[in-house]
Amino acid sequence: MKRTWTIIGVADVPSSVTWYQTLFGQPLTPPAHDYFGQIVDADGTVLLCLHGWGVEDHPPLMSPDNGTPGNGLLLFFLVDDFDLALQRARTLVPRLEEEPALNPNTRAQEFSLRDPDGYYVTISAYSP
What we know:
Shape: globular
Number of strands: 7
Strand content: 25-35%
Structural class: alpha/beta
Radius of gyration: 15 Å
Distance between the termini: 22 Å
Helix content: 10-25%
Largest sheet: 4 strands, mixed
């Protein structure tokens, strides 16, 4: 396996694309479609796909009413600009789900927040 493309159902693809691009400090660019967008790293790696609810016949993406968005899913991202990501995150949400702290397992600083659709997002400091 080379990589995975995580796809989440969202209520408003353009708004979610802007939210994630802001969180990651990326240039704000609109998605290719109103119903599907990708968050892509500078090297072209797809970090996350955002799919409108009920647009196609993908059973788990038909409606958010079929389950609680984010239940059983943790979006976990490593960033190389942790302090700036924290500043950007604080502009996106009224409060963090978890304030920055050292994760004893990864030995990295992390914080967590909820995206506009309620998905739990953890940002971890990348250290090569």
